Design the sequence.
């Protein structure tokens, strides 16, 4: 709709032309990745020397990192390493900045990682002149506030969400209109395996009625949520959520009625899922997206009673050290919000910090190990770990000595790994 701002719609080429060599450019992430503007950015690469792109995980091809020729023009700083970037991490042109998700907005606001340009996806403007940041408010709110230049693609398919994602049209330096599908899973998600069902059943047994959940995405989180169908008065305060939560929202098992922080509201900082999910949240006043510096702050999380954080890991050693962002030296994700929520849940009255992982990888490698793989990063320390759950049982490490932890973790390891783990303890 026309607005009295003096700002006219432009082409992607004209919008991206405002980026100058040497700029640090924030790129909106997940389902809100501005694909049209990134395609144009790559096309204009020959004139863009010394550009730094900084973002959480993005969707799409990420040619600026995957194409060896284009990497000469861009330096990519990942705040979380997505699957589209993972194979191209080299530490020089494509690098990683470890930081708790709750603290990333402060990097922008304090100028420690000052943003010159914010490259955003926005929902269509409303009658009052406001867009929203759509499916990702997370750290994009801070980037939009701090950037000297705000460039946007306004996507007619991006849902409009309540919360802290409102951005007035007059704040834009330039924009273009697009009509592009959002990324998301295609087809029916795979049914959980018997192993995943057993793991989910163990996790669900720890969750009481009235708990406030942090949930993720994937087959195990979906299996856990499916196992909660008979629970009542659940709440959600989560870094993100996906389609697995929808049946609980639609059945009333999640009603957010017992939350102390935003009662009656499902709270997250970003969403990633199917069109069904995006249609459900579009304009839905019971779902709000807020900045990660608030959603992920341990003090915010702890204010809700019975906060339950459910996270996973690559491996855990027998003292309780958790590697969640790398396989040895190879980075595969990031610190993200795991520590934010593990700490916040443990501080919550009646809260539980749960680490859920299969006893072995799909290739048969043990996840409970005597010592972490050389180069593995410790995301959650042994002092922060509380509940550890596999398909073989539940271990409560809280209040346990190192020797007691070893016995607890060996008990829930894969049966074929227990003897070797026991020998490593004895030696």
Sequence:
């Amino acid at each position: 709709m026309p607005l009295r701002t003096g700002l006219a719609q432009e082409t992607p080429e004209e919008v991206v032309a405002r980026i100058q060599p040497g700029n640090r450019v924030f790129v909106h992430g997940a389902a809100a990745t501005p694909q049209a503007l990134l395609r144009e950015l790559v096309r204009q690469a020959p004139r863009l020397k010394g550009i730094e792109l900084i973002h959480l995980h993005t969707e799409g091809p990420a040619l600026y990192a995957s194409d060896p020729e284009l990497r000469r023009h861009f330096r990519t700083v990942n705040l979380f390493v997505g699957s589209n970037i993972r194979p191209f991490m080299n530490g020089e042109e494509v690098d990683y900045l470890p930081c708790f998700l709750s603290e990333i907005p402060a990097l922008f606001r304090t100028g420690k990682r000052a943003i010159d340009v914010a490259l955003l996806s926005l929902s269509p403007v409303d009658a009052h002149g406001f867009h929203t940041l759509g499916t990702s408010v997370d750290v994009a709110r801070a980037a939009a506030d701090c950037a000297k230049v705000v460039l946007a693609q306004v996507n007619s398919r991006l849902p409009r969400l309540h919360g802290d994602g409102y951005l007035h049209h007059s704040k834009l330096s330039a924009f273009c209109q697009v009509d592009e599908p959002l990324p998301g899973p295609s087809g029916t998600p795979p049914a959980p395996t018997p192993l995943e069902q057993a793991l989910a059943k163990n996790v669900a047994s720890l969750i009481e009625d009235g708990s406030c959940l942090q949930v993720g995405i994937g087959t195990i989180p979906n299996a856990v949520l499916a196992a909660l169908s008979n629970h009542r008065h659940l709440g959600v305060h989560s870094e993100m959520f996906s389609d697995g939560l929808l049946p609980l929202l639609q059945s009333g098992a999640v009603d957010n009625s017992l939350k102390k922080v935003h009662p009656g509201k499902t709270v997250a900082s970003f969403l990633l899922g199917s069109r069904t999910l995006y249609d459900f949240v579009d304009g839905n006043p019971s779902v709000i997206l807020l900045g990660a510096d608030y959603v992920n702050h341990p003090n915010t999380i702890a204010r809700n009673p019975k906060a339950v954080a459910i996270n996973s890991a690559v491996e855990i050693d027998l003292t309780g050290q958790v590697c969640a962002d790398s396989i040895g030296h190879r980075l595969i994700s990031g610190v993200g919000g795991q520590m934010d929520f593990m700490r916040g849940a443990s501080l919550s009255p009646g809260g539980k910090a749960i680490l859920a992982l299969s006893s072995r990888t799909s290739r048969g490698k043990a996840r409970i190990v005597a010592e972490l793989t050389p180069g593995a990063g410790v995301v959650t320390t042994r002092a922060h770990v509380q509940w550890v759950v596999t398909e073989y049982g539940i271990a409560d490490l809280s209040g346990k000595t190192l020797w007691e932890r070893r016995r607890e973790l060996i008990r829930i390891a894969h049966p074929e790994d227990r003897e070797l783990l026991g020998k490593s303890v004895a030696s």
In short: The radius of gyration is 22 Å. The first strand starts at residue 24 and ends at 27. The chain has 14 helices and 25 strands. Residues 176 and 398 are 53 Å apart (CA to CA).
